[in-house]
Amino acid sequence: KFVNTPHNADPTEPTRQKMDSAIYLKNHAPTATGVANWSRVELSFEFKAAPTSDDPFDDTEETGFPTANDRAHSLGQIMSYAKLVFDRQHRTHHFTVVILGTMARIVRWDRSGVLYTEKFDYKKDITLAKFLYCYTRLNPPDRGHDPSAVPVTPSSPHHKAMMDRADKHRHDEEGNEVDKEIREAFAYSIKDSQWRFKLTVKTNDGLRDFLVGKPGFISSTLAGRGTRGYIAMDVAHPGSPFVYLKDSWRVDHPRMQQEGLILSALNAANVPHIPTLVCHGDVLEQETVTDKVWRTLHPQEETEKTDGEAADPCPLKAHKHYRMVVREVAEPLNTFTDSRELVKMMIHILRGEYDRCVLSLRTN
Fold first, then answer.
1. Which residues lie closer than 8 Å to 23 by C-beta, 6 or more apart?
2. Is residue 271 a contact partner of residue 356, using CB atoms and an 8 Å limit?
3. How far apart are the C-alpha atoms of 218 and 88, rounded to whole Å?
């Protein structure tokens, strides 16, 4: 369903941004009041009057990025909208349609970069009609949704488990509550039902499911690792201590190991003051596409030699979706209570880094 929301921002979004129009699934579409809902947007639209001065891309530039102020503003605007969709949803990619007077472009975003069509006259060219016809018939993964992130609805048994765990007090032998701050933070993260999800982590031993709410940390950029951090509970052991789940798009390069493999080696060597690995793995072979398209469009690019090694000519990094779970749920560094605690934390960091360097030298 098409819904116009040019004047009403999503009340749950602190930035108060609002898009011109969007396509939603019928049962998730905003009401007649036209309030945008970034958690439910399927396909976003932006309307501009001028075909050239408002165009977010510049075909005369080699990179395609604009230099004119109005064009750069348009690019920043649609990029910020795409960022909100990625922040509020579990996405592999997202499409935007930009209308420029009688012209249009179709844009595809992922963690590697952005792809966009040549500008076309949608009144004379059926490209837009064909795209919309095909898009509305795609399954959720092809529309950009991550199938390993399943919403937890109020009728789901996982919903009750999350609510019970948020209220469940755990005590030590002396009767003191052991995870009060963490439990309260988890309870706060699941206040909004639109943030509750079951995330699957694929490990060498099989699949493990974790229940999460609103992330405590969200990366500030669209392209890149897109890291998010969650306080999580294990579906198989709902009464066990909370864990921390890190969701990111790791750089896919032969010389860059998975973070979990490094952490596992450090744990095995008893390096102090670092997290304890629970499980980790890539997510359903999900990977970025923009970098691959660049290579297809630049088949004649020669690989330069740098220090005897081949330098990759592609300016875009390939990324793979990755999740890692650790035992410790830490607090942000800026929550220290006094200077003594801050200095103690820094000493622990330096001690852990020193032991890691020693281990690396011995291994090499």
1. 1, 2, 3, 41, 42, 43, 45, 135, 136
2. yes
3. 10
Q: Which two tokens stand for residue 200?
A: 């699957």
pLDDT in tens, the chain (364 residues): 988 877 666 666 677 777 788 999 998 888 766 678 889 999 999 999 999 999 999 888 877 888 889 899 999 999 999 999 999 999 999 999 999 999 999 999 999 999 999 999 999 999 999 999 999 999 999 999 999 999 999 999 999 999 999 987 777 777 777 788 899 999 999 998 889 999 999 888 889 999 999 999 999 899 999 999 999 999 999 888 999 999 999 999 988 899 999 999 999 999 989 999 999 999 988 999 999 999 998 887 655 555 556 677 888 999 999 999 999 998 888 888 899 999 999 999 899 888 888 887 776 6
Closest to 77 (Cα-Cα) out of 44, 40, 121 = 44
Which residue, chain included where needed, has tokens 């950009």?
144
Nearest-angstrom CA–CA distance, 232 and 323? 12
Alpha-carbon distance of 74 to 103, in angstroms, equals 15
